[in-house]
Amino acid sequence: MAILITGGCGYIGSHTCIEMLNAGYDIVVVDNYYNSKPEALARVKELSGKDFPFYACDIRDEEGLSEVFAKHQIDAVIHFAGLKAVGESVAKPMMYYDNNVNGTLVLWRVMKKHGCSRIIFSSSATVYGSENASPLKEDFPTGAVTNPYGRTKYVIEEILKDICVSDEEASAVLLRYFNPVGAHESGRIGEDPNGIPNNLMPFLLQVAIGKREQLSIFGNDYDTPDGTGVRDYIHVVDLARGHVKAVEYALTHTGAMPINLGTGVGYSVLDMVHAFERINGVPVPHVIAPRRPGDIATCYSDPAKAKALLGWEAEKTLEDMCRDSWRWQSQNPKGYDE
Ligand code: NAD
Ligand code: WQD
């Protein structure tokens, strides 16, 4: 028995590989290195002390993927492979629909051909759109998304729900991540973004290390306690452990199940900047800038369902998130390009 991890070389995938190996699972990884480097998996092997098969394969390559399933007995798939840059998805929607939606269709077809009907899918809090009030619960309406990236996540959720209605063997856990930050506590693996980061923590880290001059805080006139945007930041290792629990669930249940992976606590942009400065003793020069189009004031989870169904809850603190992010960044100023 093995668990296939698509996109296992990426930020969340590499941390999940470690937690799956620590939990005693055999894993097989596929990734096309579109947004990752081989060094990430070399470090996963070093940290876990375990080896596992890897295939440099695009999930849309039906033949290549079939060969992987022919070689290994795959019982479930954790499906991270996808493109995730919101702005890029607006400029290149076809690329996003092809990679994310078509990629998932090919993956499911190959899975079924080889008798595998269990998938854990990387969805996103973005499917809740801008019209729901936090704390966000899984039964709130979804789909009022504002960009093609978010639409791919919504559409894939709907496809997997339809499949689960039509196929009584199918199991799909739709994990809606909130805002993943942090890194493995060893400082050996972490997020290694290409180009100018869009997300808060990677940008903040590049300012802290002196690669960028200052952080622009996108708006301080939101209806929040200090006027800056509030989000549910979750440590990537907690998130990774949620996948181990989701695999256990998928192996013992059928049907489609959306589940939030968040902490249930919201922090503002200024909370994050001040916590980072205090915990690491490193200044983060910042200025207030105009709001970023498409942003909402507040987004945080109700994490009760994950606790009830998976027996999972986030354990790491804001201090852990800031300290571990900085350890990764300061020990690897060029990411995996040493
Ligand atoms: P990432 O870019 O670091 O990892 C994705 C991995 O998938 C990369 O290694 C990339 O090379 C690989 N990949 C992409 N397309 C592929 C294809 N067609 N075939 C094979 N491999 C392919 O991103 P991440 O932050 O680790 O995110 C993982 C998943 O979680 C993504 O689906 C993302 O949309 C989702 N997600 C991420 C966040 C976040 O803020 N990081 C939030 C919610 C959801
Ligand atoms: C967080 C807060 C910004 C950068 C995005 C995607 C979402 C999900 C996670 C994948 C906001 C503020 C940011 C900066 C800032 N990804 N900010 N200056 O927008 O909550 O979610 O990533 O599924 O789909 O939309 O995350 O990290 O970009 O922003 O002030 O330079 O930080 O305005 O309030 P977001 P983020």
Would you identify the regions where 5 or more consecutive residues have pLDDT less than 50?
none
* Global outline: globular
Q: Could you spell the SSE succession in H and E letters?
A: EHEHEHEHHEHEEHEEEHEEHEEHH
Mean pLDDT: 97
Describe this structure in words.
- This protein has about 350 residues and is α/β, with parallel strands linked by helices.
- Helix content is about 40%, strand content about 15%.
- It contains eleven helices and 14 strands.
- It has helices at about 10-20, 40-50, 60-70, 85-90, 95-115, 150-165, 200-210, 235-250, 270-280, 305-310, 320-330, and strands at about 1-5, 25-30, 55, 75-80, 120-125, 170-175, 180, 215-220, 230, 235, 255-260, 265-270, 285-290, 300.
- The strands form four sheets. A seven-stranded parallel beta sheet has the order 3-2-1-4-5-6-11, with helices on both faces.
- Helix 1 links the parallel strand 1 (about 1-5) and strand 2 (about 25-30).
- Helix 5 (about 95-115) runs parallel beside helix 6 and helix 9 (about 270-280) packs across helix 11 (about 320-330).
- The model has no long low-confidence stretch (mean pLDDT about 95).
- The structure holds nicotinamide-adenine-dinucleotide and UDP-4-deoxy-4-formamido-beta-L-arabinopyranose.
- Nicotinamide-adenine-dinucleotide binds next to helix 1, helix 5 and strand 5.
